[in-house]
Design a protein that fits this description.
With about 425 residues, this protein is α+β, with helices and mostly antiparallel strands. It is about 20% helix and about 30% strand.
Length: about 425
């Protein structure tokens, strides 16, 4: 689904952390990806809009208020940018409802009469905004919103906003948020067209065919930016040339005629800085904002034993830019440049190449903070650093910069210890 900017400005906040009604397929016994159909219902944005227009859903429904009572239960958090200040006194604010009567999407006229709750965007930060357990600069950090992440705002009081973004609920400083109509106005600039994986262990292909080599295997819930929704012959030929895909690989994918016959069934996505293809049948297309990421360790509790010191150091650079070939943690680096510089700070020299780093690290099966996860298709082409709690931090691509991901957002080829 492309170009739904106006709809997104209204609908998007209702989707932050929404409990999507979907049943996902179990991974096969061998642990490889599948491309089987989903059972159960998937709430697509088109369906959502239609149900709004028909009066079947309202913004006050528990589903739209982010998992109903469970999400509204006592969840405290605070916000931080690295420069929290004592909250200033201000009255609680209840934002005015916004009505969008109609929008144009791909030539279709979608009627909306939606009173939705408050949208916030963390764009008044240089890199990231801390989400805290309570409205205090001393409270535990439970999540981080990189710049331009969106959130649903429950309430505002004394300079703190209680928010939910993705799977993170907590408190952020309002001075770092753009809210309400001003936030809606910038959605087209800071949002992106993306797909969300809707089935467990989905095969992501190197070419648009179920016979093509498997680029990686990605889990349900992972989100990837769309490079091109409607793949055509010119684009496909460009990708084949750019990625230097061999004739033998094309033949293994069923040949060029087979690719051309099925290319409209696939979407080209960006996986880190690489191109890959997913079947339209098993993903949900949406225009969305970035969401907060849970933080599964707390540097403020003194948990710095072992390698957590390296994690605290690496987290300082969250949200900073990606630059291919770069080695600057502040002005831009690529994936191997990032981990190279992080480990150099702790006296360990690593080469500036993910493949070379994989070669000079010792394979381990039980990762600990600081270990490196290596990814790729056929060979290593991307590296990330483990930060504990099943998460990695890495310089992903030009769009996302340095970000936190599930360590198994794609299948690792190796886990190495420097």
């Amino acid at each position: 689904m492309r170009q739904i900017k106006r709809v997104a400005a209204t609908v998007i906040s209702c989707f932050f952390g929404v409990a999507v009604l979907a049943s996902t397929m179990q991974a096969s016994a061998e642990g490889v990806g599948t491309e089987q159909g989903l059972s159960g219902a998937i709430v697509l944005i088109n369906d959502f809009c239609a149900r709004i227009a028909n009066g079947e859903l309202f913004a006050t429904d528990p589903l739209l208020l982010v998992q109903g009572d469970e999400a509204r239960a006592s969840v405290n958090s605070d916000a931080n940018l690295g420069n929290d200040e004592t909250p200033s006194d201000s009255d609680a604010v209840t934002g005015p409802a916004t009505q969008i009567e109609s929008a144009i999407q791909d030539g279709k006229h979608i009627n909306l009469n939606l009173n939705y709750s408050r949208l916030g965007i963390a764009n008044k930060v240089s890199n990231y905004l801390n989400v805290r357990k309570k409205p205090s600069k001393k409270a535990r950090i439970v999540g981080k919103m990189v710049k331009n992440s969106g959130c649903h705002i429950y309430k505002v009081k004394k300079g703190w906003a209680k928010i939910v973004s993705g799977k993170v609920t907590g408190y952020v400083k309002t001075e770092f948020l753009t809210m309400d109509e001003e936030a809606e106005a910038i959605v087209p600039e800071v949002g992106r067209d993306c797909v969300e994986i809707m089935t467990d262990s989905l095969n992501v292909r190197a070419l648009p065919s179920t016979s093509a080599p498997i680029y990686s295997v990605c889990d349900a819930g992972e989100e990837f930016e769309i490079k091109k929704e409607d793949v055509d012959q010119a684009f496909l030929e460009k990708i084949i040339k750019k990625e230097n895909i061999s004739k033998a690989a094309i033949e293994r994918a069923g040949g060029m005629d087979n690719l051309l016959a099925h290319m409209n069934e696939f979407i080209c996505i960006m996986v880190d800085d690489d191109y890959a293809f997913v079947s339209k049948e098993y993903v949900r297309e949406q225009f969305s904002l970035k969401r907060a990421t849970k933080v599964k360790y707390d540097p403020q509790t003194g948990e710095s034993s072992g390698n957590y010191g390296i994690v605290s150091y690496a987290m300082q650079f969250l949200g900073n830019p990606y630059v291919w070939g770069g080695t600057s943690l502040t002005h831009g680096c690529d994936c191997s440049g990032f981990v190279m510089q992080i480990w150099a700070h702790f006296g360990k020299g690593l080469p500036h190449s993910s493949a070379a780093q994989a070669s000079c690290t010792t394979s381990v099966s039980n990762p600990r903070p600081g270990d490196l996860f290596f990814y790729g298709s056929g060979g290593v082409s991307h590296v990330a650093m483990y930060i504990g709690g099943g998460q990695v931090i890495h310089a992903s691509n030009h769009r996302d910069g340095i970000k936190i991901s599930n360590a198994y957002y794609r299948h690792p080829l190796k886990i190495g210890r420097p």
